[in-house]
Amino acid sequence: MSASGEYLMFYRSFGGPKMTVSIDCFKRGMRQLASGVSVVTSRFEDNLAGMTVTAVASLSAEPPKLLVCLNRAGQTFDMVRQSRIMCVNILSAEQTELAAAFARSSENKFAGCDWDIAKTGAPIIREAAVSFDCRIDNIIDAGTHGIVIGEILDIIIAEEANCLVYKNGQYGTLMMKTG
Ligand SMILES: Cc1cc2nc3c(=O)[nH]c(=O)nc-3n(C[C@H](O)[C@H](O)[C@H](O)COP(=O)(O)O)c2cc1C
């Protein structure tokens, strides 16, 4: 056996690396990750729910799917699980107040915003840069959060919208490099 193989066996016999990352360190690291800001909405019977999220990713083009990571303790997660529909609204640069409102826990988050009903029945936020209307394909439990996979049934794209960005606790917009 090679020296590195011996070392690997020794290393494994002690159970591999110890987890030493603190929550505070995790948060400080993640604050450096600049992300687009979205509001995930859902509707079940006459009730609406929605929350601000940055954890959104494209999953596949064929079939068109995306994923969002939602806290399982929140009202929106509960409604998405029940209704099996959601709309992922990528916010435009002018929608900072909306992002802040949908990040608070409140009974009536939709009062200050204009919305329409998407094909699935979920609320589409007007003037969002783009809205992805989804049927829920799968929900994977991941500790405090659920990884929600949506199959995209419709896409509503605004003309030339600049997107809202979040980094280090602050909202901003992108300035693209030219040349
Ligand atoms: C900029 C920003 C991004 C956020 N991203 C997420 C996210 O990706 N996933 C999540 O579960 N919560 C996220 N949150 C927290 C939720 O928006 C917040 O807990 C919300 O009040 C949940 O609403 P609900 O309980 O009505 O569903 C974010 C908050 C902010 C301000």
TrEMBL record:
GO molecular function: FMN binding; riboflavin reductase (NADPH) activity
Gene3D superfamilies per the UniProt record, alphabetical: Electron Transport, Fmn-binding Protein, Chain A (2.30.110.10)
Pfam families found in the cross-reference section: Flavin_Reduct
The species this protein was found in: Govanella unica
Transmembrane segments: none
Protein known as: Flavin reductase family protein
Segments forming a coiled coil: none
Keywords, comma-separated and alphabetical: Oxidoreductase
Lineage, broadest ranks: Bacteria, Pseudomonadati, Pseudomonadota, Alphaproteobacteria, Emcibacterales
Matching InterPro entries: Flavin_Rdtase-like_dom, NADH-dep_flavin_reductase, Split_barrel_FMN-bd
Family stated for the protein in its record: Belongs to the non-flavoprotein flavin reductase family.
SUPFAM superfamilies, per the entry: FMN-binding split barrel (SSF50475)
Domain of life: Bacteria
Domain (Flavin reductase like): residue spans on this chain: 30-173
SMART domains: Flavin_Reduct
